[in-house]
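Listing S7. Sequence submitted for prediction.
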Amino acid sequence: MATSEYATTLATLRAQRAAQPLSILSLAEPITTSQLPAHAQTPSRISDTLSTATEADSSLPLTPATLTADLSHYKDLFSKLRFSYLEQVTKEKYLRSIVGDPPLLVSHEDNLALEEKLAVMKANLKQMKEDVDTLVGEMEERARDVAHAYEGVSEGLQILEEVPTEIQDLRAEVEQLQEEIKARRGQEQGSSDPRMQMSLAATEQALMEQKERNAEIDRQIAELQKQLPGKVREVEKMDRELTELERRRNESTRLAVEGRRRREEGGRDEMEELGRWNRASESVMKGLLWVEG
């Protein structure tokens, strides 16, 4: 059901796209295919100017760069045509005014009136040009938006056209994976590991017990981590005590070696005398305090 609806939707989108093509493509077609008519009767200077229009290569692809180049070319072309036309019309009027019967004479007042009329027309033309430029800018902005939207729609339609093939490939891959899983399960059934023969309920129970053991281990690890700072301090304290004991041992060893050396040399043993004095002092103190030794 879903496949048929997808195909119907895709066919509807294709039909709508074919029924309503983008107008800008149709508008751009005459730019690349137009040719000047062969029966056009123009003066020599105008024909020379128009002959440059046939030099454009109509086989170029439609891109913003080519369209901009064509627009600049045609603007320059029509500017030259306008100049040639005004020149020819001015010459024609001048000749007619001279050879007419009676000749057409223009006074200074007529020139002033024409200049005033021309100034008004120039102001109106300038305003119209500004309006046209504004409209052209809005049209260009709108054309860019439409072009981006058209590209998005085209990409989306292409993706939609590729989706059915990708779905079929994924289904084939899923079926292949299912076959591999079935084959592996058949191999595992002959395995000597008893855990591979467990039922689903037994497997879930074993998994739960393993999770409980892991939780207990994690709890013990957390407890040991809490005790770790205290143990570290105890070890540091024992290291300090060990260092002090080693220092005392080295000092005692040094004194013992020094005393032995003095005894061997027949000298005076200060440590032994000090020990005798301490023992005598201890005996006197015990006698004074009536302490039994």
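Caption to Listing S7: primary sequence and predicted structure tokens for the chain studied. The chain is about 80% helix and 0% strand. Residues 46-51+62-105 form one domain.
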